[in-house]
Design brief:
Blueprint (H helix, E strand, L loop, with lengths): L12 E10 L3 H12 L4 E4 L16 E2 L13 H10 L25 H4 L6 E2 L2 H15 L2 E3 L3 E8 L2 E9 L2 E12 L5 H5 L4 E3 L6 E8 L2 E8 L21 H25 L5 E5 L10 E3 L17 E6 L7 E5 L11 E3 L8 H7 L35 E4 L17 E3 L7
Parallel strand pairs: 1-2, 1-8, 2-5, 8-16
Antiparallel strand pairs: 3-4, 6-7, 7-8, 9-13, 10-11, 10-12, 14-15, 17-18
Helix pairs in contact: 1-4
The structure holds flavin-adenine dinucleotide.
Flavin-adenine dinucleotide (FAD) binds next to helix 1, strand 3 and strand 6.
Length: 421
């Protein structure tokens, strides 16, 4: 490809934060809440105009289980708080639009036997959930920057010192003590020069609403893909979520597919009016690019304990398996003040998909985690005096930050290198 030299220029330093979170999906929202609730001056950067990423802007409204499918809750903390808040305005199940409050058996004192049958999951109204998250971030004191895209970052030795962003003010720099990559696509990790891995096997997928005969209905549409997304047993075209042409192709081709499906429905009964209602405003890429740290979580690690555990997750496809998430799979190894959250942590194969969810762990109920009856008690104790950007001890306050991976939360308190309060 021919290249052109872009002249260097001075840019304004627009803000300074202890922690900057890139990406306002569920992972970024949780990370920012955890950070701000722990007293760090926190900013959340989001390129779109709403919170929730794939979950809300992509209409992927199912909040996958917080339990192991065998009646035990393995995720608590912020993951549970967000699930509860996501369906706070629902009073009943409405199948056609996938409104589904969490099963009553998972309330305190609920029927233990029923918990083996009904998983601790819910399905939310994406618009209510977006607004609820905005409220939660405001209450936590997070500074929100919409329409703001991360474009580059500056490093000062083994630390990220500034994030370069673009928005309506043009291009500017934000100074940070620590940074969290919750972009879903490991954009910040890649820009910081950390090792990453990219999957080129994403299939066309889109969840959308339509109105048929006056009834609102949700439609989940996806080409076939295997349990392990790195396998190529998929229905083409196979796309990368981190190549500009593929991103546009995904959007255009899924919309053409939606048009075709609506035309089919109309042709079945011309007397019934069918209209598209809420299209996804973010492409349905499942696994795109992730941090590749020296440790990569795999399904083979199910039921293993790690001394640097920050949380746990079950497997949304299968009942039984439980993965413990070690801190190593969210920590960058080059930049010491950089963590990943959500679907871009260091995990592979089915574990990537299992972690690729908006859920987390930690919290009192982890005491019941299989294989680790005292799991949360074994998290590292306070040590103090950590280097810039290191991770501080876990705290037992379930509000202060659940472990993360899928919906990615930051389970431990960040101690940014500058401006710590
Ligand atoms: C078709 C499909 C179906 C799914 N079904 C389910 C399901 O039923 N249940 C479930 O729990 N999970 C499901 N998932 C997975 C789940 O949606 C995601 O894994 C989860 O929502 C990821 O959250 P996240 O916050 O890590 O990433 P995302 O939701 O991708 O959020 C990333 C955010 O970062 C922003 N961003 C990206 N780059 C930049 C940048 N450079 N600068 C600023 N902002 C940026 C994006 O706009 C976005 O808001 C599904 C996924 C797909 C694709």
């Amino acid at each position: 490809m021919p290249t052109l030299h872009e002249p260097a220029r001075e840019i304004p330093l627009s803000a300074t934060y202890d922690v900057i979170v890139v990406g306002g999906g569920i992972a970024g929202v949780a990370a920012a809440m955890a950070s701000a609730r722990n007293g760090a001056r926190t900013a959340l950067l989001e390129r779109c105009f709403g919170l929730g990423g794939l979950a809300t802007l992509g209409n992927v409204v199912v909040y996958e289980p917080l339990c192991d499918g065998r009646g035990r809750q393995v995720i608590g903390g912020l993951g549970e708080e967000l699930l509860v808040r996501s369906v706070a305005d629902l009073t009943s199940t409405q199948k056609q639009i996938q409104f589904r409050p969490a099963p009553p058996c998972w309330r305190d004192g609920g029927d233990q036997a029923l918990r083996r049958q009904e998983r601790y999951e819910a399905a939310f109204n994406p618009f209510s959930f977006q607004m609820e998250m905005e409220k939660l971030l405001g209450e936590a004191g997070v500074e929100l920057w919409y329409d703001t895209r991360l474009c580059a970052c500056l490093r000062d030795g083994a630390r990220i010192s500034h994030l370069i962003v673009e928005n309506k003010d043009g291009r500017s720099a934000m100074a940070c003590g620590a940074a969290i990559d919750a972009s879903g696509d490991a954009d910040l990790c890649a820009l910081a020069g950390e090792p990453t891995e990219t999957l080129e096997t994403n299939v066309l997928a889109a969840w959308y609403y339509l109105i048929e005969g006056g009834q609102l209905k949700i439609q989940a549409m996806s080409k076939r893909f295997p349990d392990d997304a790195s396998e190529r047993d998929t229905e083409g075209p196979l796309l990368s979520g981190v190549r500009a042409r593929d991103v546009t192709r995904h959007v255009v081709e899924t919309r053409a597919w939606i048009r075709e499906r609506i035309a089919n429905r109309r042709s079945k009964d011309p007397a019934v009016e069918v209209h598209p209602f809420a299209l996804p405003s973010i492409p349905g890429f499942r696994m795109t690019r992730r941090l590749a740290s020296s440790f990569t979580l795999q399904m083979g690690h199910a039921h293993q304990w790690f001394d640097d555990a920050i949380g746990m997750t079950g497997d949304w496809r299968h009942r039984g398996p439980v993965l413990t998430l070690p801190y190593r799979c969210i920590r960058a190894e080059g930049a010491r003040n950089l963590l990943a959250a959500g679907r871009c942590i260091s995990s592979a194969g089915r574990a990537w998909d299992a972690c690729d969810l908006r859920r987390h762990r930690r919290g009192r109920r982890n005491r019941r985690s299989p294989g680790h009856p005292q799991a949360w008690r074994r998290l590292p104790r306070p040590a103090g005096g950590r280097p810039a950007g290191a991770v501080a001890p876990a705290t037992r306050d379930p509000r202060s930050g659940a472990g993360c991976a899928g919906g990615g939360l930051i389970s431990r308190r960040l101690q940014p290198g500058s401006g710590r309060r």
